[in-house]
Design a protein that fits this description.
The protein is an alpha+beta fold. The chain has one domain: Sandwich (Jelly Rolls), CATH 2.60.120.620. 28% of the residues lie in helices and 28% in strands. The strands form four sheets. The protein has a seven-stranded antiparallel sheet. A four-stranded antiparallel sheet has the order 5-13-8-11, with no helix packed on it. A two-stranded antiparallel sheet has the order 6-15. Strand 2 and strand 3 form a beta hairpin. The longest helix has 18 residues. It is globular, with a radius of gyration of 17 Å. The protein binds 2-oxoglutaric acid. 2-oxoglutaric acid binds next to strand 7, strand 13 and strand 14.
């Protein structure tokens, strides 16, 4: 299963692995997320857990701090998710455990981007394992990958001013290759390279789109300090303008 996924990952920049997790494993992730929401999210800074409306906790849409929940953190360094990442890029250094949702009735798009633009690595060798906790269809924000775009290097991005995705690709992503819409069920898992361009539409359905994502850097990658400083300054400008942090 993983050898075939690796071939697709190398060719296309992503792979869909159907039925990779059992229903019990998906339930464990859901339970870990519920504990995060109940016990940890209320203690966090506005930048660590993001809401469409900060006065309404049901509008939680994004966080990069799920690794603070011990059971979710335990999946980072061993087990099926770790093994999938290592099968794609070799020895890995586990990074964040993230949450990506699209609350119902909110216009929250995921702008076209490469994770590698945010990761700032040399070499830019990393991957993300994207795990849906519910069905994801075209109408509630399926992830869309540009096939083969991981072979095009780091593309130019600019400020998007969208909370949670501060940078977006400047070019039209469809000018870079075929767009593949990934509809998935719980148990299915997506994995993409850090240079694969991806994006998602807003949720136009009545169903949420909860996803947990594990990010891994290649163990041999190091931070590109210049790119990192540029990115962090741009992020701080946007967060300050949104009142999430005082200058
Ligand atoms: O789920 C989304 O809408 C975006 C996810 C993403 O950008 C990622 O996992 O790298």
């Amino acid at each position: 299963m993983l050898a075939e996924a690796k071939q697709r990952f190398d060719n296309d920049g992503f792979a869909i692995i159907r039925g990779y997790l059992t229903a019990e494993e998906v339930d464990q992730l859901k339970a870990g997320f519920a504990r995060f929401v109940a016990n940890i999210a209320p203690t966090l800074d506005k930048r660590e857990v993001m809401y469409e409306d900060y006065s309404d906790s049901s509008t939680i849409k994004q966080s990069n701090a799920l690794g603070l929940e011990p059971a979710l953190a335990a999946w980072q360094a061993k087990g099926k998710v770790h093994d999938l990442a290592a099968a794609m890029i070799g020895p890995v250094s586990p990074q964040h455990v993230e949450y990506f949702d699209k609350p119902v009735g909110r216009n929250h798009e995921t702008p076209p981007h490469q994770d590698g633009y945010y990761f700032c690595l040399l070499p830019n060798e990393a991957c993300t394992v994207w795990i849906p906790l519910a069905g994801v269809e075209a109408d509630n924000g399926a992830l869309i990958y540009i096939k083969g775009s991981h072979k095009l290097g780091v593309r130019e991005h600019d400020a998007s001013n969208l909370l949670g995705f501060s940078q977006g690709l400047i070019e039209d992503p469809r000018s870079l290759g075929e767009a593949v819409v990934c509809t998935v069920e719980p148990g299915d898992v997506l994995v993409h390279h850090s240079l694969t361009v991806h994006y998602a539409g807003a949720n136009r359905s009545q169903r949420r789109r909860p996803v947990i994502a594990y990010t891994y850097f290649s163990a041999s990658a190091v931070k590109d300090k210049e790119a990192q400083a540029r990115y962090e300054a741009a992020l701080l400008r946007q967060h300050t303008a949104k009142g999430l942090v005082t200058a």
